[in-house]
């Protein structure tokens, strides 16, 4: 059972936004754009929270709505939700609503009119605007919101997926406790089912109990020290209050008590100490390992009937060095093969550009508009050969995924332009610092490959400038670039260098040495170049990048 769509209304930075989901879902965007609020909305949906403080409401005069479309139901879930399955016989739509001033949370599900019986009609409301529950609807059918379809508590514990949420700041101390509500506690408790059957442990526990309590009502068999201590206490009390004695009633711990009170996680990274005393990066890794172990345990115990799991992780890159970030992303992709993974990130290591349907760019232009999510679910590359070629491009250089993080993108043919343009910009104007303006320079490997990146930028509505050599202005490559940019709706524009970068520079008196590494030679040349000697055409291009929308 997985999330395919989420509607958030009036929650924190959100006014109203509908988000499509895949098995692996990455939300990226600037600080304070509202990325974490997506995970917090999901966490609230899966919790049994009845009332919310005012801080959760974008506008306290309106309701918060968190509505989730689920599909990929197993046979048991389909049987459970059969009354609420929509037209595709695969999808269930459920929603929670909160009001700050009036009633507590309400929980409801969409039900087809022809499945509604007389009893249901008492608390069912017809859905007049069917766009609320698209796309699995029919104009010929009637749909209703049915309040409390099963009772929230029952759904939270039995029917819906388990949402495993790891916020950006989370102390491992709570998660590694052996408590009934902690994941580690649940793993330990499950393990005890077989451990408590161990013959030797049972025998030792029985002997220990006899030593503390005795073998009969007279407590024969108790250790002598206990009897002596009781006698001493009774004698002293009897001296003050004649005929009064003291008895020690000791309840020995059960094996379960021993495991729960005496189990803790020690991590040996050269020094063996409790996990809560380790660094934050290691703590977060341990928390995630516990969650994965919990998922494996459920599948082992329950098989096909195992509860669906959804991992919600804020900034998995936190406290991890680059190599570990790459490793963690591989793990998340592996987990997403069976369990849904939703995360927020600021790291390009956690974004697979070729898997663009799993990317949501989170933006917040102003408070009035609120948080918006930019996505593209259709195929950008319908031809399989194009799709394969683009994946090779992004796998060859994962740094190109930084394209999604830019407020504006500059596409160039190769590394020479990529290293030179930022140097030229600051020489022209010290304020023209690419990263200060949120400008990302992406090297496309060649002019021939540039249309691939233009298509992605068009799909995600990211402003860009495509800079390329004219070579032959009538070439197929030039025509393809122009055609793609023309379809951008004004988001993109082109800057053509005549006839190519090196010859244009040489024509303006700047000769880039040949031989060896061309990008490094160009870098050194422009690094040492006086500002007034920068070629006029490059000045024009830089000024347009920084001054034109």
Summarize, please:
With 549 residues, the chain is an alpha/beta fold. The protein has 17 helices and 19 strands. The strands form four sheets. A seven-stranded antiparallel beta sheet has the order 2-1-4-5-6-8-7, with helices on one face.
How would you describe what is shown here?
This protein is α/β, with parallel strands linked by helices and 549 residues long. The chain has helices spanning 35-46, 75-80, 152-159, 172-175, 183-195, 199-213, 224-240, 255-262, 280-302, 322-335, 384-396, 415-428, 450-459, 476-486, 501-507, 518-528, 536-547; strands at 2-9, 16-20, 24-29, 64-71, 92-98, 106-112, 124-126, 143-147, 162-166, 266-268, 272-274, 309-314, 340-345, 359-363, 372-374, 408-412, 439-443, 464-469, 492-497. Helix 10 (322-335) links the parallel strand 12 (309-314) and strand 13. The radius of gyration is 32 Å and the shape is extended. It starts with a strand and ends with a helix.
């Amino acid at each position: 059972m997985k999330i395919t769509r989420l509607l958030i209304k009036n929650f924190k930075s959100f006014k109203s936004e509908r988000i499509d989901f895949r098995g692996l879902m990455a939300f990226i965007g600037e600080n304070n754009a509202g990325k974490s609020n997506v995970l917090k909305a999901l966490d609230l949906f899966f919790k049994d929270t009845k009332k919310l403080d005012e801080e959760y409401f974008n506008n306290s005069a309106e309701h918060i709505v968190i509505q989730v479309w689920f599909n990929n139901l197993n046979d048991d879930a389909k049987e459970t939700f059969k009354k609420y399955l929509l037209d595709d016989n695969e999808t269930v739509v459920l929603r929670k609503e909160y009001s700050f001033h009036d009633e507590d949370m309400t929980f409801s599900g969409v039900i087809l009119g022809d499945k509604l019986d007389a009893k249901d009609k008492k608390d069912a409301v017809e859905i007049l605007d069917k766009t609320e529950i698209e796309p699995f609807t029919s104009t010929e059918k009637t749909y209703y919101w049915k309040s409390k379809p099963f009772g929230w508590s029952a759904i939270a514990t039995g029917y819906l997926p388990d949402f495993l949420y790891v916020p950006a700041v989370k102390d491992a101390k709570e998660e590694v406790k052996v408590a009934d509500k902690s994941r580690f506690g649940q793993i330990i408790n499950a393990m005890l089912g077989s451990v408590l059957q161990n013959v030797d442990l049972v025998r030792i526990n029985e002997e220990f109990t006899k030593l503390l309590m005795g073998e009969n009502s007279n407590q024969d068999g108790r250790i002598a020290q206990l009897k002596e201590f009781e006698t001493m206490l009774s004698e002293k009390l009897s001296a003050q209050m004649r005929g009064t004695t003291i008895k020690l009633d000791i309840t020995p711990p059960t094996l379960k008590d021993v495991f729960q009170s005496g189990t803790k996680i020690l991590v040996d990274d050269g020094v063996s100490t409790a996990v809560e005393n380790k660094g934050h990066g290691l703590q977060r890794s341990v928390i995630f390992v516990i969650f994965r172990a919990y998922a494996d345990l459920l599948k082992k115990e329950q098989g096909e009937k195992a509860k669906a799991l959804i991992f919600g992780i804020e900034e998995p890159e936190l406290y991890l060095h680059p190599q570990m970030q790459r490793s963690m992303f591989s793990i998340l992709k592996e987990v997403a093969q069976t369990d849904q993974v939703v995360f927020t990130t600021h790291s390009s290591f956690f974004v697979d550009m070729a898997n663009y349907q799993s990317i949501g760019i989170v933006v917040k232009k102003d408070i009035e508009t609120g948080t918006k999510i930019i996505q593209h679910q259709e195929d950008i590359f319908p031809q399989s050969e194009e799709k394969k070629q683009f994946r090779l491009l992004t796998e060859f250089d994962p740094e190109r995924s930084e394209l999604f993080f830019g407020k504006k993108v500059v596409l160039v043919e190769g590394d020479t332009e990529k290293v030179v343009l930022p140097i030229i910009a600051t020489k022209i104007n010290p304020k023209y610092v690419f990263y200060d303006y949120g400008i990302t320079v992406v090297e496309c490997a060649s002019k021939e490959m540039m249309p691939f990146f233009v298509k992605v930028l068009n799909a995600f509505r990211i402003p860009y400038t495509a800079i390329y050599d004219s070579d032959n202005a009538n070439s197929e490559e030039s025509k393809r670039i122009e055609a793609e940019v023309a379809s951008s709706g004004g988001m993109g524009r082109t800057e053509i260098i005549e006839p190519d970068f090196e010859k244009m520079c040489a024509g303006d008196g700047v000769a880039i040495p040949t031989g060896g590494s061309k990008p490094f030679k160009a870098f050194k040349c422009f690094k040492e170049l006086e500002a007034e000697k920068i070629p006029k055409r490059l000045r024009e291009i830089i000024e347009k990048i920084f001054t034109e929308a």
